[in-house]
Amino acid sequence: MQKDFCWLPQHNDRIRKNFEKRSSNRMRDMFTDLRKSGQRPLWMAESVWAELSAAWSSPDYSRKRDQNRQNRASDVGGLGSSLHTGGSVPHTKHRRCLEEYTRIRESQTAAGEDSSGGSTEYSDYRTWS
Fold first, then answer.
1. Which domain, by its residues, includes 101?
2. Mean pLDDT of all residues in the chain?
3. Does residue 19 form part of some domain?
4. Which pLDDT belongs to residue 98?
5. What are 23-30's contacts with CB under 8 Å, separation 24+?
6. Which residues contact 100 (CB under 8 A, 6 or more apart)?
7. Looking at 18-27, 62-71, 103-112, 115-124, which range is the least confident one?
8. In terms of Cα–Cα distance, which of 108, 118, 116 is closest to 127?
9. Residues near 46 by Cβ (< 8 Å), separated by ≥ 6?
C-alpha cells in the first residue's frame, strides 16, 4: 500500500530533518532490541550480524556502554540525573549574555542599586538565563 503526502516546497528542509531524527531514533531502538535479544533478524545478512555481534561484545564497546550508563544515572549535587534538555548553546551566545550581564551590573553599581547580602535579583536571573 502506497501513501502519497503533499506539502509546500518551503517545508522540505524541516520535514527532512524531522524524518531523519525520527528514523534515527527508531533505528537506534531497533538495534538496541536486537543486541539485547541476541538473535539475528531474517532481513539481516549473517556477515553483518557477525560483525555487529563482534562489535557489541568487544571490551571497548562494553566500557563505553557502562560509562554512558553511569553518566545517565549520575546525581551531581543532589539535583537528580542530568538531562541536558536545553540544547547546545554556542560560546558566542554565552559571551553576549555575559557582556550584557556585566554591563547591567556595572550600571546598577554606579547608580547605587547593587544588591548586597548575596541574594540574586530577578533581573540578574532573567539577564543570564
1. 91-113+122-128
2. 82
3. yes
4. 87
5. none
6. 127
7. 115-124
8. 108
9. 40
